[in-house]
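Pipeline run #58 for the internal structure catalog. This entry was flagged by the ingest filter as a single-chain record with no existing model, so it goes straight to prediction. Upstream metadata was stripped on purpose; only the residue string is passed forward. Reviewer on rotation: M.T. Logging verbosity set to normal.
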Amino acid sequence: CDGCMELVKKFYADRDKYRIDIVLVPSPGEPKEELRRLWCSKEKGKINNLDILRWLMGSKSDIEKRLLSQKEAEECPAEPLVASLMLAGIYKLQGVPSVVRQDGLAGNGIPKDFDYWLNQSVEPLLKNPFETN
């Protein structure tokens, strides 16, 4: 997705500023198999998070050489992919890209002012609007 690439490029460019975890959420068909190859290759120590980021940005040639084969990836457990779908459900994420802060505040899409969104307080959101005090 174009928005995903925009977000990945932002985080890659500012990788010293932000600490992020990318959760790959599968969709039906071929992309799911690609994600499984990425995940399994990472679990087996063939690639790392930065490699996944580079792969997502389109720099695939060097990384493709180190990925497990499709057959090897099929032998890996599917739990990580199922867990990513569960996380998306827990945070009520609808569509991609979506972002989740460390405190659990989630948003669908990319905030226009990401730093503001990242640092804004959730206190006003937690107040009872019907409280009379």
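catalog note: Residues 2-126 form a domain with the Glutaredoxin fold (CATH 3.40.30).
catalog note: The chain has eight helices and two strands.
status: ready for reviewer M.T.
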